[in-house]
Write a structure and sequence with these properties.
Elements: H1 3-27, E1 92-93, H2 107-113, H3 131-145, E2 152-156, E3 161-166, H4 172-177, H5 188-194, H6 196-199, H7 204-223, H8 230-252, H9 259-276
Helix pairs in contact: 2-3, 3-7, 7-8, 7-9, 8-9
C-alpha cells in the first residue's frame, strides 16, 4: 500500500472513533451503541421473488331487482259522517224582559207578560179573566216590540226566541184564491179576506196569527181548561193557510229567498203545536185568576 493511502485510512479510522464517542454521550449510559457504518464499494442487487397471483374472485352476478307490482288506485271512500249542513232555520233573540210577571198565571202567559211594558193593554177588557186570549193577544204585543227589518216580518216564539221571514211577492188575496171552499174554515173570512185591508201585501202576517193561536193552545193546556177548544182548531186552520202561502210563493215567486227557511219553520211550528197538545195541566199559585173549567 502506498504511504499516502495508509494515511487516508488512518484518518478515516480516527474520525470513526470520534463519532462513536459523541453518539455514546448523547444516548446516555443505557443506550445501545450505534451500529458501525459499513461502506460497500460494490452495489447490492436486491432479490425479487415472484408471488403467485391470487385466485380471482368469482364474478358477482347482480340480478335486476324485481319490479314492484303496480299500485292500483284505491277507490275513494266517503266518510259516513258528513259535515253538518248550514242550518236553514235560525232563531234570533226576542225582546228582553221588562218586568217580573205576577203569580197565578200559566208559564206561557208569564213569558209573554214579562216582555210587555203595558201587558194590561193586550188583555180582553170585556173578559179580563180570559187568560187564553190574553196569551194570544200578548204574543202579538211582543211581536210589535221586535226590531223592524225592511221586507221581513218578526215573530216571537217564547223562551226569548224569535224568527224573521221575508214576505214573498204575493198577496193574501192571491193565496186565499188557491184554497178550495171545502178547506176554508170558520176564520177564513176574518184572516184571508178582512185582513187584506191592512196586511194584503204582507202575507207572513198570517203566520204570526198561526203562532199566536199555538201559544193560546199551550195556555189552554197548562190551565187544564175543558172549554176554549176553538183556539186549537183555529191553530190547525191557520196552519193550512200558511202552507197555502208557501205553495203559492214557490210557483209565483221562484226566486223567493226564504222559501227553504219558511218551509222549515212551518214544520217546526206544526210539530211544536202537537207537542203543546200533550202538555199536562199545572198547579197555579194560590189566588190564581185562571178561568174556571
Amino acid at each position: 500500500m502506498p504511504k499516502s493511502a495508509a494515511i487516508v485510512v488512518a484518518v478515516i479510522a480516527i474520525l470513526a472513533m470520534i463519532g462513536a464517542a459523541r453518539c455514546n454521550r448523547r444516548s446516555g449510559p443505557d443506550s445501545l451503541p450505534a451500529a458501525p457504518i459499513v461502506v460497500t464499494p460494490e452495489p447490492v442487487e436486491l432479490e425479487v421473488k415472484e408471488t403467485e397471483s391470487p385466485t380471482p374472485a368469482a364474478p358477482v352476478t347482480v340480478e335486476p331487482a324485481a319490479a314492484a307490482p303496480a299500485k292500483t288506485a284505491e277507490p275513494e271512500t266517503v266518510s259516513a259522517v258528513q259535515p253538518p249542513a248550514r242550518p236553514v232555520l235560525v232563531f234570533g233573540k226576542g225582546p228582553s224582559t221588562v218586568r217580573i210577571p205576577p203569580a197565578g198565571h200559566p208559564p206561557v202567559l208569564s213569558d209573554v207578560i214579562a216582555r210587555l211594558p203595558d201587558p194590561t193593554y193586550w188583555r180582553d177588557q170585556t173578559e179580563p179573566t180570559d187568560l187564553v186570549t190574553w196569551t194570544h193577544e200578548g204574543s202579538h204585543g211582543v211581536c210589535v216590540r221586535l226590531p223592524r227589518v225592511q221586507g221581513s216580518h218578526g215573530i216571537y216564539l217564547l223562551n226569548g226566541q224569535s224568527v224573521y221571514l221575508r214576505h214573498p211577492r204575493l198577496t193574501i188575496g192571491e193565496a186565499a184564491a188557491t184554497i178550495p171552499p171545502k178547506e176554508r174554515g170558520r176564520i177564513f173570512d176574518l184572516y184571508m179576506v178582512e185582513s187584506r185591508r191592512d196586511w194584503d201585501r204582507e202575507p207572513i202576517y198570517i203566520v204570526e196569527e198561526w203562532v199566536c193561536y199555538v201559544h193560546g193552545t199551550l195556555a189552554r193546556r197548562q190551565l187544564g181548561l175543558d172549554r176554549r177548544e176553538e183556539t186549537e182548531s183555529h191553530a190547525l186552520e191557520m196552519e193550512r193557510y200558511s202552507r197555502a202561502i208557501l205553495a203559492l210563493a214557490k210557483r209565483k215567486d221562484p226566486t223567493y229567498p226564504d222559501a227553504e227557511k219558511f218551509a222549515a219553520f212551518i214544520e217546526w211550528n206544526a210539530r211544536r203545536f202537537r207537542e203543546f197538545q200533550k202538555v199536562e195541566p199545572i198547579r197555579l199559585a194560590v189566588g190564581s185568576n185562571a178561568v174556571p173549567r
